[in-house]
Each structure stands twice: as structure tokens, then as C-alpha cells.
Amino acid sequence: MSRKMMLGLCLLALAAPAAAEKLFVSNEKDNSVTVLDADSLAPIATIKTGTRPRGIVLSPDKKSLFICASDSNHIEVLDTQSLKIVRTLASNPDPELFDIDPAGKTLYVANENDNMVSIVDVAGGGVTGEIPVGVEPEGMAVSPDGKVLVNTSETTSMAHFIDIASHQVAGSVLVGSRPRFAEWTADGSKVWVSSEVGGSVAIIDAATHKVLQTIKFPIPGIPAGQVQAVGMALSKDGSLAFIALGPANRVAVVDQKTYEVKKYLLVGQRVWHLAFNGDESKLYTANGVSNDVSMIDVKALKVIKSVPVGRAPWGVAVAP
Amino acid sequence: MVIRTLSLFLLLGVTVAASASAAPSSIVKIAYVGAASSRSLPQAWLDQPAIDDGMQGARLAIEDDNTTGRFVGQTFQLSETIAPDADHAVAAVKDLLAQGQRLFVADLPAAALDAIADLGKAQGAIIIDATSHDDSLRAADCRANLLHTLPSDAMLADALMQFLSVKRWTRILLAAGPTPGDKAYADAIRRSARKFQIKLAADKPWTYDPGARQTDTGHFGIADESARFTQGIEYDVLVVADENNDFGDDLAFRTTLPRPVAGTQGVVPTAWARPFEEWGGTQLQNRFLKLAHRWMSERDYGAWLAVRSYGEAAVRAQTSDPAKIAAYLRGPDFAVAGFKGTQLSFRAWDGQLRQPVLLSDARALVSVSPQPGFLHETSELDTLGIDQPETSCHAK
Questions:
Q1: Could you tell me the pTM of the whole model?
Q2: Coil, helix or strand for A138?
Q3: ipTM for the whole complex
Q4: Which of B67, B286, B336 is closest, CB to CB, to A156?
């Protein structure tokens, strides 16, 4: 058995170039994660998970993919090489989205039903603490220096800045309705927060907790109510930001410095979360209603390809 | 004493506005007022309304408001008054007004709502009607200090007629029940049918009283009557107006021709429904189940929206002053998220909360109106109900 597996791995290694990357997609309504070749989008595997997998996040070394199995009330750990679920971590009820600290030791989990952020120790596998936040916590983002956690609460419409050392909420910033996702700029100076019902993105100064700019996305021919900002991906070089606009079926391309919307890219229906590949030459989108993922060429700003995955794709991640 | 307490609140309100999150807690007081007699028990024995129908929605929303308020130094308090009847409810509101209460959520019939809105001290107050569909309250009987969170009959009817129009089921048979509520609902259907060019193939009053239908052969009589009622009419959909659930559930599958039923039974236009789970609706359903140990009703949703609207206005306007909250609620900046995928706000001309309307049966969501393609110059949501040019509400 093990020899067969070894052989399989060897063949795989031969077939794919050294830089081959895998695209992981959580399928909320299929209780599975689809694995695709990140270049060709050819299917590699479908992995059964717990119930209602939503948020997925990679460990800093990209060897583990953490999966929020929301209705199973736990977090599963997928080995990105063996493509097997190797561990299950405890979580408080209904984990939806989470982030991992830069050291890869701690997960910060939004428990949507509980108005809590729970702190999960990756090594020990248990919940080590809880931080009360607003109603329906969702977006989670740890600062690049690992000191500050930003959490968004959907019904409260706030981004909470939480000091990781003390677990205290240091500031709460009112943003547009139903904030879904938060992401730090690579330099740690700002936090971008998307608001689904508000249809906007707020850029918050991390030091002063002031909203520097609010970006709206008026698209001719699309009713304002259908423009719902959700997933985001900010390039590390500080040049571009990609914002998924949900039922507007488009990804907005925004200049990170001028906040100008440069382009809208038409992808699948109800585009949800986004992820870059390793060198940020490609961006992948999970399209929740059309049950597919789209691949965007970041340099050309063009959608290259879309392929079907499971039902209600939610999160995306790319690992070697 | 009363005045001193009030001015203390005002002072605290100013403090909150000045410094965002570190300010001491200031209190926003919301009074929920209902009348036990406004509840009518349906003939049907399934799904009897809960004793705390409506109230539990307010309780959930006050929790939501406080979770938010904690971060901006605001505390929200909900007082609950259930009077034995509408007259006592009006008296109770009069007392509350005298004690300085200004923000109200009401689960009361139309006449009592107007009586409350007209009370002397109510001019500086705001009353959110959380449970009525009554069109007259949004028209000639409207009041400047009265807002409505549930869709009006006109909005419900328009939501259904838009759907029928999209399906090209353009001939309806209207079965109108005997109560004033049934008549109002039927009127809304007739108006909406004209608006969306749906033909009334027949418009008939439902007068049959089944007597004791629990007898062993009760279903024969109802089946015969439904067949007779619908015989000889060419139509696509049977639309029923039966607000009390007295007979509407007895029509489907008993009609002469095989035709779907919609209206107050069958496919129902409504603000909230048990099968609804889109736009994060699952979260609200779950939180409500956990709190109330039963499903959220439309009235619970109306009360939740009312208390959430106060919370949202207080937090956004950074004030605990009822007058400022009231002004913000009716102003152009107010918007509240109600798990419908879009921002909801009060129409300036009649105090109605504009919102998508669900079309749902007991087990599945069928559609959500406004239907795609029904356009409007400012908001597609205003294709549902009475729009500004046609309003007969002139309260200022």
C-alpha cells in the first residue's frame, strides 16, 4: 500500500512542474473540499469534510489547510500534501471564518451564532479563550505583526480592533451594513473592510481607527442592491485590491493607493471569496450560485477560465 | 423628577456623541405595547399563534442592540406592556408618555395606533407599528409620528401580482372572506391586479360556514363547497383573502380545476417565513429559535425590525436623545439590514419600511419580489406598494 502511494507521489511529481500549486475550494452545500490543479484547473480530488464547510485558511507553511465545518461545530485540518483530513480541532458552535497568527500557533475563529471570537490552540487542538464581540461575527484578520486582530460583526456593523496580548477590544469602528470580510494591507498600516448590504469597502487607519475612505461600486445596469462587497484580496506589493461583489457577479479591481476602481471583471454568479496563487500572478474566485471557480490573470486583468466545482463554493486557498 | 431624568439622558447623549467608545453608558428606552385582545385564534388548529408572538422578536432585537451598544457606550432597555384590550393599551401609552417615554413599538389594531399617535405628548414621540398590514394607516389615516415595519397590504398584493405577471398566470379567481381584514386584503389584490394587468376572472365572497368540521365527515362538505365555488370559471390561480386562517387552507386540492392557491394561504406574500434562509436569514432564524424555542413569525420579525431600527438609528446618529433618534429614523441617512440582502429604510411619504417581500408556502421559499425587470427611477423596492406620486398620506 505504502509503496503504491509512494509510486503515485513519484508519478505526480514527474507529471507536474516543481512549482505546481493546488487550488482548494470549500463547497458549503456539498460537505466537501474540491482540489484542482491551480494552473490547468484540472480536478485532482474531492475530499469529504464535516457539515457546511465555509471558511478555509492555510497555515503559514502552507502544509495544513484549516476548514471551518460550521454545522459540525469543529475545525478540520487537511494535509495539503496527502490530501487527507488528519486532525479535528475543537471550536465553539458555528465556526464560519477565521484567521491564523503569523507564527501558525493560534487560530482566531468567528462563531457566528455566539457573538464570540474563540481562540484555538493549533497544537493542543482546544479552545483556550473567548472574546465577546458584536452580533454575528464574521470577518477575521490578524495583523502582519501578529499583535492586532480585526473582527467584523454583521448585525452590529462594526470592525472590532482586538489587542491579541490582552484580548481586549481596543476600538470599534462603525462601517457599512453587514461587514463580511477584513484584510490588512501588507505593511500593516490599514485594514480594508467589505460591507455586503452597504455595498461598500471601508479603509481604516490601523493606528487611529478612523475610516480614511469608503469605496462604492456603482455599475451601470446593475441595481445598487445587487452590488454586495464580500471577499477581498490585496496584493502584497501594495498595488491592487480585488473585491468580490456577490450577486453583481463581478470582481472590482481597485488601486490600493488612490482607491480608484480601475475595472470590473465578470466572473460567476454570487462571487464570494478570493485567493491569489503564490506569486500573485493569478487570482481565483469562488462563485457560490453558479457552482464554479474562475481564474483571473492578474497582470492582464482578464478572466481566463471557469470550471465547475461542488455546490455553493465558499472559500478558496492556494498551496504548493 | 421626570424632567430631571430626561435632561440627564440628554446630557449623556451629548457625551456619547463627543467621544466615541469610551463614554459612560447612556440609556435608550423602548416601550413595547400590545393588547391581548388583538390576537384572533384561527379555526385551523395547527400553528396557533404563540402567546408571546411579536414580543419575542423585540426581545431578540434588544439583545442585538445591546451587543452593539456596548461598543459605543449605549444601553438599550425594553419595557413590555400587554394591556387586556386596545383601550387599555392607549391608556397605558398615555401613562408612559407622562413618564417621559418617547420611543414605542406597538402591536395594536389600526384605531388604537391612531389614538396613540394623536395623544398630546405623542407629538414628540415615535410609534413603530410592528404588526399591522393596514393600508389606511399608510394613507388617509397616516400620522407623522407613526412608522410601519411590516409590508402594507398593497405591498403584499403587488409582490404577488408581480410574481404572477412573471409567471404569466394572468387570470385570477379572488375568494374574499367576510372580515374587515379580509375585505381590505381583497381590495389590495383588486388594486394591484389593475396595476399589473392581471385579470379578475371572478371576484366572489366566501360565505360558507363549515360548522363543525371536526366531525368525522367534515371534509366532504368543505371539498364540495370548494369545488362548487370554483366551478365554471376559467382562471390560472385562486387568490384567497382570509387573514384569520378560517378557510383558506381548505381550498387547495379541492378546486374543480387543478389550480394553485396564493394570497393569505398557499403561496403567501410575507415579510418573514419559516423556510427563509437566504442572505444570512439562517442566522436570524437560529438566534430566534435559541431565544424563543419556537419559529420566528412575521409579527416577531416586524417587532425585531422595529427595535433594531431604534438601535441602528441611535448608534449611527450617536445619540440617545429620542427626538434625535426619531429624526434620524425618518431622515435620508437611515438604513437597517433585515436579512433581505439590501438596505431597508422608511418611505418619507407614509412611514412605511421599504423592503423585499418573500413569497413562500409553509415548507419552501418560492420567490422574492420585486421581481427582476420591474424598474423604478429611485428604488426597485418602491415598485411594491403605494409610491410617492399616488400617496394619500398628507401628515406632516
A1: 0.83
A2: strand
A3: 0.72
A4: B67
